[in-house]
Amino acid sequence: MRRTSRAYSSAICVSAAASAVVATEGCRRADKPPTQLVLHIDSQIEAGIDLRALIVTARRAPMGPAVWQKDFQLSGDLRLPGEVGLYANAPEDNGTVYIEVQAQLARGGSFTVNAESQFIPGRVRVVPILLTINCATLAAAGTAGMCASCSACGCDTIRADVDAGGMPAGNYVTPFSGEEDRESRCQLARPPPLPRDLPNPPAPPPDAGARLCERGPCFAVRILRFDWPTMANPDAWRRHGWDLDGICTSMNRAIPTCRNPGGVVVDGENGRDNAFASRLGPYLQTLNNVSEERINSGIARGEASMGVELRGYSGTGDDGTVEALLFPIARGRAGDNPAEPPRWDGNDVWSLDRYVVVSPEDAVSNGYVAGSRIVLRLRSQTPIAFATEFGQSRFLVSGGIASGTVHCGGRQLGPIELGGFVEVRQLSNDLPFLGLCEPLQRFAVNTALAQSADLNVVGDAPVNNPNVDCNAISFGVTLVPVPIRAIEGEVNAGIRTNPCLPEAGAVDASAPDDGGADAGFSDGGDASSDARTDARIDARG
Q1: How many other β-carbons are positioned within 10 Å of the β-carbon of residue 513?
Q2: What is the pLDDT of residues 191-202, one digit of tens each?
Q3: How far is residue 421's CA from residue 400's CA, in Å, rounded to a whole number?
Q4: Upper half-sphere CA count for residue 488 (Cβ side, 13 Å)
Q5: Cis amide bond preceding 81, omega within 30
Q6: Residues sharing a CB contact under 8 Å with residue 171, sequence separation 6 or more, in sequence order
Q7: I need a surface site. Which of 112, 248, 275, 412 has the fewest CB within 10 A?
Q8: How far apart (Å, rounded) are the C-alpha atoms in residues 309 and 115?
Q9: Using one digit for the tens of pLDDT, what is the confidence trace for 65-84?
């Protein structure tokens, strides 16, 4: 740790992904001034694996001496996404503050991201900072010192003039809305609300003639993180998802929101509902074809991933109406060489996987931006897609919330925390596509599904009622999106036959569609989902 002056002070560091608090400089003392600058640090690089440490520096002049500096070891001092709060300690500090965040890579090399802002008494301002994978690639090759170009590396110098939106001011920094479970006083993990004075007009109708990525920037998910429990890391799942039912459920406060034969399902941190990970994750972790490592290695090879298109965003810190489209993609390749896998440099090209959806418009989610943080209400039937050894697999979300920080006026997105729910019947229909073929195996998982349900969903929202059976299971996942150049063409990377049948096999993503229907089946669930999908595929075949 370095110290050069007491001109600025660090107030508090809060992990947006986990609400883990790291206090520095005695920041919780009542005599400390309120936080004025929130350095929100996102990363497309895996902290603790590829990213070793950060050095955060504040200066009064661009090349002047450091007036505050601190090292953060990412193995424990700070989790990303995370926040560092600053406040001014002297009258002369109410001018421009120049901020540098130096990222030190685990295998050597570093790069620096610059930002500018200003301390304004009585206001909290957000400074969004993104550490991009392209910066890390160039730094590892010795060709990136100062990361300063959106086209080549990340963002230009960030000039943060964004107030903190729904983020409350005080002697702490929080990424949440400020809502509490009134009985337990637990602060609920919910994104900031739409500012009251911000207009929220309906989104304009889509341009029917526009292609994907023509109405806004597109991204491909580079990392999909579930953190299902393991012996070595049994609690990482607790920092994924969002609170969906307004209650912090723990072993000491087991308040049922609906009736479950398996008993009350305990929440993660700050009431995060993530029963899928806590109850089913230990079992799914043993299946090689759906392990997190298998899914992310398939993404790296360009087999399959999730695409995101951001629409209608003004590029400002607050925007009352934005849309995002989530859709499955496949056959990712380098933009200048289709024979190479994605390079994650902003020039990659992917294709729409039309096995999962006929029209991407089926998955448009509406939302807003508050304090540079996008908040989306997930539309029912939004697909969460990933690659297994059988091809493109997916489950269909019944509803939920997705939220992450917007960078570079919308040209970059920070990690998106997605918390949602899936109806148990729908999830049961999807089990064969995870390779769960043995009868006893499927019976065990179906039983676990029924005993893991933690929400009563009516329409597209949870409704707490301890006298009715739970019918949906919550989940949490973090998506790390990286800009891409284009979505070109359509492929069918899905499973064309039931993978549990002897003749089953994955379809070559480059092969033309043969118009055949999926031989989907149900095990104790509603088969209508498969039938609807088949009919829609045939209608376009």
Answers
A1: 15
A2: 888 877 777 777
A3: 6
A4: 13
A5: yes
A6: 11, 12, 27, 28, 30, 32, 34, 35
A7: 112
A8: 26
A9: 888 888 888 865 567 888 78
